[in-house]
Amino acid sequence: MTGASSGIGLGIAERLIADGARVFAVTRSQADLDRVTGSIPVTGGFVGELHTPDVAADLVTAAVQSLGHVDILVNNAGGGVIAPTLEHTEETLQATIDNNLWTTIRCVRAVLPHMISRGHGRIVNVGADSVRTGLMDHAIYNAAKGGVHAMVTGLAREFADSGITANTVAPCYVRTPELSALFASGAAPARLLQVVEQGTAMIPLGRPGDPAEVAAMVAFLAGDDSGFVTGQTIYVNGGASMG
């Protein structure tokens, strides 16, 4: 799984391991991978910038060598600059699309031939509820995550005959340990606090999500019980958007 080093990604990795999966963790730096391997029993790992051509192919090769085969791809790698649209620069625009959309496209394309050869696969993307709610400062981020959401309908129909399902899990604002530490430090920018306040106010259940709640949905979609679920974007959002 990609983006395994912290927050939602680490929570997903922990849940999949608890459910009996062997997890191959992917991070952007060796320090991040070392932190993962020091905290949870992953089977192996890989470091790379997945939006770069050919890196995802190297990842799949390494994962197959480590695991023997790959049944599940969890595309959690992401992150972008959350900012008013006109404050973005060419660099932040590119980084937001690279980190969220290109990484997902390249990993999907890299793993599909292997899954097709086995006649089985589960592709689970991590999207964003903000695509539907229009959360402040998220327009460019939503452009990237919206592409991630849209992929699964085409993938689901195209590769159904190969035994492959494709779905997206779209969480609302999730209170990760990293964000909690930032807010506790008093160093969080005022604009970020506004975004968090707005995001929380949208949630009828009255609180942010927890990484474990997102991980539970990913684990369901990665498992055998979800074999008749494909082409869906499932919102884990406390009711922030409905329908």
From TrEMBL:
Pfam families: adh_short_C2 (PF13561). Gene3D superfamilies: NAD(P)-binding Rossmann-like Domain (3.40.50.720). Keywords: Cell wall, Oxidoreductase, Secreted. It comes from the Bacteria. GO terms for biological process: monocarboxylic acid metabolic process. It catalyses: a (3R)-hydroxyacyl-[ACP] + NADP(+) = a 3-oxoacyl-[ACP] + NADPH + H(+). The keyword Oxidoreductase applies. The keyword Transcription does not apply. InterPro entries: NAD(P)-bd_dom_sf, Sc_DH/Rdtase_CS, SDR, SDR_fam. GO terms for molecular function: 3-oxoacyl-[acyl-carrier-protein] reductase (NADPH) activity. It is found in: Secreted, Cell wall. Belongs to the short-chain dehydrogenases/reductases (SDR) family. This is 3-oxoacyl-[acyl-carrier-protein] reductase MabA. It comes from Mycolicibacterium anyangense.
